[in-house]
């Protein structure tokens, strides 16, 4: 709470009084009369078989203010899609599943590919992008939230606190980012945020100079959180990466399109835990190594867009600067852990920093070697200019799948 009385780049809402969930949900029901609310859930089929998603659905059945839930389903065959329809059928809210691997959505994707308007690779970004398209086509909501499907500590209070700032018609916010402490099982989690993003943002300022954009990113308590909510009108022009750079990419787009006074963050949980990615030291295409490369590339792209000369030579300086800053931060985390009675494995922390140092170079080389790479999926506004009826056709395809015609 040290920044409570300080001016920040964005507004920060703390969970000071632990306001009762019933009061939050009552207010949101009132707000829904003026600002209808929806939720996007990007999911892999494997998450339907995991420990988290069934509990999330149980919690969502009790949420009184949601008009619509849009579920993006990846890596599912026909039988798995039918299983998913049954799995989500207990939701009392209107809900639709996007069968991203089904023949109808794949046919639309092929049309988009011919005009270079389709996501370049599978992943969370692609899943979210199609869900955004359906949300726009449905036209049922003016506020939409999004969160991951692997949160094992999920409660519906998380959603209520996330939606409140953008749902309240007396507030002026267009976008709200959730944050929380990453502590579980008696130790710190959130290695990519703690050991890559925070020291890297500081190092970028040292190497390339201070910038409003970097200060903006550093003002987020947890820029990699997968929980955010926004006014639906923001979605039409939103361009997002299709890879693991989704969260950083969304914040970058908000910085480009939205005044910072209309952006906020909110403390949504005392306790948060989800599925942990492996380090994947031997395979740069998986795990935290892949994630760290994609996130770092997303930062390089934005810096280049802002006119910063990103060169191969500067990556070596950046890597060295990052390494020193990251080790210094580990000292602080170790002290914090001891004060709070948490376990702390310095060897694994420094091993992660070494892996992330390599990712900074890998991302830099990939950035320099592929200057023509499209950093973002095209916005739905652009898609509609090329295919004026695409949103309606996407809507109809999803409706047909959910009626049972598969």
UniProtKB/TrEMBL annotation:
Protein's UniProt keywords contain Transferase? yes
Task: Write out the entry's keywords from A to Z.
Answer: Transferase
What organism, scientifically named, is this protein from? Rouxiella silvae
**What GO molecular function terms would the record report?**
transferase activity
What the entry lists under InterPro entries is as follows:
Nucleotide-diphossugar_trans
Query: This protein is called what?
Result: Glycosyl transferase
Q: Which domain of life is it from?
A: Bacteria
